[in-house]
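Blinded run. Sample ID left blank on purpose so nobody reads anything into the name before looking at the predicted structure. Input follows.
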Amino acid sequence: MPAPSLSALAGLLLCLGPLQATERPTGFLDRSLPFQGEAHRYQVYVPADYTKAKRWPVILFLHGAGERGQDGLRPTIAGLGPAIRNQASRFPAIVVFPQIPPGTQWAGPQAELALAALDRTLAEFHADPRRVYLTGLSMGGHGAWYLAYRHPERFAALAPICGWIDELPSLDFRSPVVPPEDGPPLEALKRRLAGTPLWIFHGEQDHVVPVGSSREPARALGAGSGNVHYTEFPGLEHNAWDAAFALDPFIQWLFAQRRPAP
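Blinded prediction complete.
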């Protein structure tokens, strides 16, 4: 068979050009943003059927201590990332996976980094600003409490998994969610998050973060009444996140939450 002529190849490329131009990248995408003079890598998950024909909910996911680094990839290996890879159809949302460096936690500048990645994602994709959800595991569960306390107006729902409110000296985490000047932490938390739908998770046998770290705020916020839920997994140790993200009622509840129209 004779090789195609240059003119034929050119014609083929012209035909393919418009098709390729309409394709949009989906899956786990590499992203970076400048923050405090450095480039910070992170990941964004975009569903395979993403289109600008509708607005999409957005989940901000905060990783645990073991996923800290600078590669931008490790935040997707525990928690929400594997849940999406296992059954993507359960998560029809854009998901932001920021990453913080070793030796840091989701507080102060690193919390602002998470918000910067969220803002960049909201601007890049056709997102629904009324359906932005915040979740995280372990250190990221603490970070979810921390961010929600400071920016409750930004999130339609909050789901901390095996997180904590006060300092955790046993693991050298010393950034309390509630600043000392705000008064008793649980009372301040209740005032601040009174209008935020919550679902709190913890493993009953957690030997890393004591289960009381979730029981106490759940009780103070009125879990079991209104739109505050608390699930404690009997017999589970620190990894409560796999069970949480496998819980269909939680996922359905999450996507049903919307902030009031302005």
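Unblinding after everyone has recorded impressions. The two ends are 65 Å apart (CA to CA).
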